[in-house]
Structure formats: structure tokens, C-alpha cells
Specification:
Helix content is 0%, strand content 36%. It is mostly beta strands and 91 residues long.
Amino acid sequence: NASTVYETITLANNPDSTTNYSVFPSYYYGYGGSAGSYGLGEGSMSQIVITNRTASNFSFQFTKSTGQNSNVYVVFLIVYNVPNSDYPSTY
């Protein structure tokens, strides 16, 4: 129901305990909502922003229309140790 959603995800397996990884977030479009709630298209969802990357976790944030209960899945693809990259811990 909140207008801003902010959560932290703990990494279960970071092979080299590094911050050199990329997080690719996405919404799962397959759920249409239920009585009193909204699916992705109806909930005015913003893009997902990744913050505070550490070797053990990262945070994400998105906004949506205030007062709307939204039933969506947020999924992440995490790619570790991308060659020739030097990502900052927060962006």
C-alpha cells in the first residue's frame, strides 16, 4: 500500500565475496491482481533502482501510486565477476 517500496536482498552465494556484480531487476508481468489489488499495468509502477551494493546484500527501491495494493513479483538476475569491469558499490 506504500507509495515507495524499499527492501534489502541478502546474497545467498557470492562466490568471491565481491561487489563486482551486476543486478538486472525486472517485474514479472504474469500476475493480474485480485479483488482490491492491482497488477503491474494498473499500479503505476516506476523503474526499479538498485542501491547500496555490498558483498553480502543489495537494496532496491521503486515507487507506485499511493494507496494501491499491488500484487507483482520483482525478480533479479545477478551476474558476478564481469571481466574488465569496476563497478562502484553504490550507484
